[in-house]
User: Fold these one by one.
Assistant:
Number 1:
Amino acid sequence: MFAPVSTPAGSIFGLSIFVLVTVTAIFVAVFALLAYTVVRFRKRRDADNSEPVQIYGSTQVELAWTVIPVLIVVALFLAAARVIAEVQDLTRPPGALEVVVTGHQYWWEYRYPQLNIVTANELHVPVSDATHPGATFLTLLSADTDHSFWVPRLAGKTDLIPNHPNQMWIDPHETGVFLGQCAQYCGTQHAKMLLRVYVQSREEFERWVRDQQQTPKSDATSRGQRVFESTACVNCHTISGTAAKGRFGPDLTHLMSRDTIAAGAAKNTPEQLRLWIRNPDAIKPGSKMPAMGLNDEDVAAVAAYLETLR
Amino acid sequence: MMAGNTVALSDITPVRPLTVRLHEWVTTVDHKRLGILYILFGLVFLALGGIEATIMRLQLIRAHNDLVSPQVFNRMFTMHGTTMIFFVAMPLVFGFANYLVPLMIGARDMAFPRLNAFSFWMTALGGLFLYFSFLGGDGLYGAGSAPDVGWFAYAPLTAKTFSVGHSTDYWILALLSSGIGSIGTAINLIATIVSMRCPGMTLGKMPLLVWLNLVMASLVILAVSPLTAAQIMLLIDRYLGAHFFDTQAGGSAVIWMHFFWIFGHPEVYVLVLPAFAFASEIIPVFSRKAIFGYSVMVLASIAIGFIGMSVWAHHMFTVGMSAGANTFFVLSTMAIAVPTGIKIFNWLATMWGGRILFATPMMFCVAFLFQFLIAGLTGVTLAVAPLDWQLGNSYYVVAHFHYVIVGGILFCIFAAFYYWLPKASGRMYNEALGKLHFWLFFIGFHLTFDFMHVPGILGMPRRIYTYEPGRGWDIWNLIVTIGVAFQAAGILVFAVNLIWTCWRGKLAGNDPWDAWTLEWLTSSPPPAYNYAVIPEVRSRRPLWDLKHPEDPDWRYE
């Protein structure tokens, strides 16, 4: 939430400072009044048992502490309404980059319809700078339960709800990797449905796009690919240019272009990859990927095959 | 006097066997006994919900902890939330309402004593359903026991596809059953308050506690009914093939959210209005002054009731409502800060110029005022929809609503315990233990819930069983967990004090606080019929009038 690098997060941050100053002022004033009352009017040791003067109320005082809060509420409301309109009512300029984000139990699918790219868990977007200003628009869908897309430094969260497409936008003006995670409880592994957004310079982003658009070399005779294609792996995973066309799990066509596996739960290293194939529960208990019961040689072969998917 | 006779009679009655006495408690229709049953039930479930919270906090004490599995953790937060709202907070406020309202309006019982018993036992049945899920939730699927869908059970996680076995069914039955009980008690309270007040007690002379419980009961009828309807729809979805919330067949997840929160937000006021009720009785007595601005307090309570029905969708700022809808719910939510603020100022004005005695009930009430001020202000920050886009569903929200429910409501409930225990048990509690309870719980509360705001601001969502190191969340989670130990110690001292009071406490007498409302007129504990002669009142403080015949309240009202 602090150090925003995108307009929606920036507007919210600015508004939050205004709100914080206002409520802090109220807090200090009322706290002081309460503390003074409690100390000043405590029963003293030497007090006799006579009753203090009974006061039943005062219309003027009541009016004062009704009208002042009303004015504060109006001010806060107007400030909030401005930011709501600013963030929610932005129309998408023609040609803006669009990404369709689909939440799955417990991973993220990203489709770039204009670029014909499908990837998972690590979202790549171009930076919005002086030479190339422009926002990326996210269409949010869900394949199963409710999820929520939340990368605090880029924007507030928006839920992904089945049968209820949502929209949000980001225009990050700094490059880097920004972290977040699913913010709506979606089932057993809600905790390890992590988000990584890679904000790249124009050149880097275009290079990434070109790489993603390649179809990797396929060698159906390699042992790893044979094992992969003859087990249930292909029911869930797609590797373009091969027989693997499943849609339930992440697209693995360019798996090696990602830093992490298991929706950010583990680093994408050969050891972690083998562990993940052998026993997904060791990394992410309750994830939807089953242990396929492969022997060590087959695990090594499949991992070696996956490591060729660049 | 009749009351004197009864005490003498019970002294010469031989001690009856335990089974007979227990049978009397099970079959009772006496509002005081039902009130005590509600409260004891709530305390047992408070211990259960507390254990569940402790398990969660131990799991989150450091990053990548593996004390419990994600499955167990998810059950713990579902059971903790459901337990604390439906089987702790509701029974406790209903228990106090049951016990106090007839006494304070000079009636001999509730309007419908049998409905009263029925309502309590429906709530108890609900509690049993919920905890039976630990045994029966598996069903034939071996799918895991207690419900793990979260206490607001968003669709479609509750659909058969995502929740196999019977754990969700027990959750539904628990809320259905306790919901029927809650509606029964609410009807009973309204009927009692409207038609059973003693002579002279016009609406404008009712104690504020009674007023607030009248608004609370009205809210229960308006809020719990849609929840109960939604539970029935969900059951039909799961067993008769309907698709209200089944998104895979075109149902709507968002409709469930509306159903739940049109219950869920008024529910906050259902719980907080009785807390206000306790504060509105205790603060004047321990400040030795009449409540400041009685009629404004009544109007503010009614305003909270009405506005409270129109704010529910502020729980849904992130689900993609239109800018117009979001803006409306920002305004309605902020509007409720005005009557709530008025209440805080009126309590403050009541203390102003008084002679404040810091006995345990008053200490809890004063802490409540400070804490509720903070809870209200963090509530204002969350009402600003764009801030909610960042902070919603994070630990900031968890900290905020625990500030309301623990720092506000539970502190007032503790105050009420110490204030009315002498009346209900006839014996005075131990003041030293009461103060020890206060300080332990106060320190624990602040360690836990002050520091819980921070990881939320730093991006930590709620309901995660573990988190990655390096996000800056670790230290805050450690402090939050340490606070739990203090809170638990405080609760233990409270339990010891309760038991000690009932066994060894000094006799309290009818009116140990030199208070002003009718319940202090009768004996402690009150006889089954409350009043041998139905009292007549002329003002809001009938006992003040009795004690100060030279300067009675009715001259000024």
Note: Chain B touches chain A through 92 residues (CB under 8 Å).
Number 2:
Amino acid sequence: MRRLHALALVTGLIAMGLPAEGRAQEAASGLLAVGEPAPDFALPGATRYGLLAEPLRLSDYRGETVVLAFFYRVRTPG
Amino acid sequence: MTAYRDQYASLFNEGRNVVLIGISNDPVEELGSWLKDADFPFVFASDAANEGATYTLFGGKRRDNNMVENRSVIVVGPDGNIAGVIPQFRQVDPQAYEELAEIIDRVTPDPEGEG
């Protein structure tokens, strides 16, 4: 029974994963895969209230979910 | 990024436990000026000095002009690991935000649980 439970768990985890199309797109993009550690970076940052005095570091946000949105150019639509 | 602002309250819990960082190769002064004018409630980071190299840290490719190949969205979980990757984010498509919300909900602690 225990083995059956393990099998069900693994099957469930696979089913929860990305659809095949998403996985293929991910691989083609070369982007890191889910589960890999995110590389840290330090960049000049800004908010609507002004420029940040200290560089913005990804590691400063440990404990929170961070959405990194790469975009082309300021003041473009979308 | 305007569409992100419109999705902000529902998707990013008003910033609680979820941080949106927009990254481009624009000088930080230009990013700051746009944030102010558009009143965006999130953070921008400038990759100008590195000519877009931060995208390549995450495995992405640059174009000849050093701009990112695609408008990619990468979700980093509270544990510091990659929680989701959307190589080409269609930011004007409502369905794209549903996909993003699913990833965020999967890894983000419920803000209600914090009292």
Note: Confidence is low (pLDDT under 50) at residues 11-18 of chain A.
Number 3:
Amino acid sequence: MRHRTILEYRDYRYLKLAALIVVAVIFAYGWYKYPVGHYGGTPLGYTLGTIGALLIVWLMWLGVQKRRYRTTGDIKGWLSAHIYLGTSLIVVATLHAAFQIGWNVHTLAYVLMMIVILSGFYGVYTYLRFPSLMTENLAEDTLESLTLKIADIDREARRLALGMSDEMNKAVLTSIKETRIGGGVYAQLRENVPNCPTTIAVQLIKARAGTVKGEEARKQQDLYGLMLRKQRLVGRARTDIRYKAIMDIWLFFHVPLSVALLAALVAHIVAVFFYW
Amino acid sequence: MKTKLATITRNKKGQPASTEQTVVAETLRIGRGADCKLHLSDPRIALLHAEIMCGVDGVSFVEARGGAVSVEGRFETAATLKTGQRLLIGPFEVIVLPPQPDVDLALSVELVDPLKDDLEQVKSQVKAGIKSTWLSKRLFSWVAFATVLLAFLVWPVMNALDRSHGKEPVKIAGLTADASWDVGPLSSAHASFGSNCGACHQQPFVQVTNGACEDCHKKIGWHFALDTKEAKAVHTGIFGDTQCSSCHRDHKGPNGLVRSDATLCTDCHKNLKSKHPKTGVADVAEFTKDHPPFKVSMLIPGKTGPEALVRIQQDDKARYVESSGLKFPHDVHMSPKGLRGPDGKVKMECKNCHTPDETGTRFKPTTMGEHCQSCHSLEFEPKATKRQVPHGKVADVIATLQEYYAQAALSDAPIDVVLEDGIKRPGARTAETKRQAGLTWANAKADKITQELFEVRVCFECHQIKKGDANAEPEVRWQIAPIAITQHWLPKSRFPHSQHDTNKCDSCHAVTKSKLSSDIAIPDIKNCRECHGGNVTVKDKAPGTCETCHGFHTGSPKSGVPPILPGSNQPKLMLKAAANATYLANSPTAKSNGTGGASQ
């Protein structure tokens, strides 16, 4: 059976629900007439605002659901609902605001909500795109097994390099001690690592090919093969970390901004009724 | 050189074990290389790392070659070896042992910094997952939550509390925190409230009350006059629960406070009669289609109270006639040939008599003294004197004439121009008999001129005058028709003349051919429709929504004001006069000073 994504969950159950909400809301907005025109304070405006606020709170509850492992319903269903109902918020909130914006806490809440939703879209994109790329990159391996393989190569390369020139030996040692895989935020996300000691070692061995003969040349050839393999393994490990980082990093915006949105939402509601 | 090398290894508990060997070489080569007598198999050691030699004086010294050598913590390229000295060659510690027999030099060698396990090494260099970095969802979330809540909720609430305690809230860059709560710019009328939110929002969590509006808008009118019980009941039925804020939503920009949408009016007025059969207001949904002909509000001379004013629809031809009590042919006054004036010929223009009021909306009252009298002089004996009869009561006119002629007859001063025999001669004193004769003459003359003024010229020229009993006292022999000049013909609309002054007057007011003062020159609805569309925008036409011409709060909150005079646009004097029902209660001659616009 073909793998079904979170978007297709139960024959697009939540897409249908979200579409229903959006159509109903647009219809209500078009049909409803208020003497002074649409704005958040009309009966329809209050209704849309209430729907929007409840949706926001409910969608945030998913975050709590994910943290608890004993969840009601399966996590895929929750996530599918989260995505589609979250998207429907764009229409609900925009019509609640009646397209009015300004430099105030009300628009702040709206803008925060839009950023949260857009970052969520990016999250959906990463969930759809990167898992297959990760599988493709790792194949049978895991980051752990890649690490083991690299360690094996390091041991062998170190042994081989002991009998070689200081330059060669040092390059191999530097590769062993200083080849960083992953690291800080930027290091995990970047595609190319400049001055990677392993790459430098590979280049050096290649450059020195032909300077030695006989047994030594054969050993050097072996070392070159080892370092080349290590270079590929390191590359795959880095790619794996990069994919994971991409899949993770948006949540570091999505979650805190949705918490900020919750605060702005509270301020928005209090402000509106404080100066009713 | 003979060197004793003690290689020290340690077991798991750290206890040392020593393996000794003696090497003989000219130079003790130290390194990773196979040819090194002190062979240190570690990738951190150079092939030939250093050399130890024995000098001619028997003193040994070390020289760095392919790698670095540290002697007592300092990197040296060459150093003399002394007993107890500690050298670091890569990860190896080499200690110079005390001199021993049979050897030139004794050294202990120990690997003090072993290589890490390869797997450990690699693992230490792998750092995966954003969670392992400084980024923290929890920290960010708390910071964001607290920042937003403090800046946009706590601080503004504190501002509001400051205000309610009469304290001026702290401003940053000219803004108070609750400015962030402002949903939009205030209307131009309320802009001066600025950030004083409490002016309207008087209680937290309570909608703006009508009372808050009425703090300033004390005199706002109802939609129609509540002068009867029935009117009050109808008003309560329609507007009972309506709040000011139901229609007037502020924070919608400079012009956002006042509703100008058609539904405000047409929701009720398109089928008003079916809801309120007794209403005198016609159903109307659209200016361009079913708006009835205009109804003019006209003053009726000689009537009092509500009868002083009638409303006549323009298509009611039989009644659509003005009866101001004056004779005034516009065509004569507007003649292109001009008129004979006191200083020669005058070509009159509208503005000679109709001068705009201070607002430019309508016109100041036209008065005898200001606008007519320069041509229509009240001189009664122009050949003899510049004196004029007063523009007032009949009795005053007669008294003026009697006084004048008596004075002329009896005065010592000669009146050369009066040439009738026996009256007086230059320089002569008047004798008693002659005085009597003079008085008789004066009375007869006054009577004659009075009759002339009321029946032929001067007064008669403009006034409709009824002649009574010829034998009656002169004061009641002539009755001047009451005067009522309507000042505001369409008080239920607003028509700013100033906004239409690019048009010529006669493009709307057809007066140049009007021969009679009974003609009404108020333009009809067709005239307006030539330029104005309706609630629905019409191409190439100016808007013509209900609100373009009509106001909503045109009813008066006070009872007793005739329903026909609700407009705040009504000239005060007229309103007051009609309200007091004293208007024209006295004969028109009672108002003689010409200050009342409506009376002259």
Note: The longest strand of chain A covers residues 181-182.
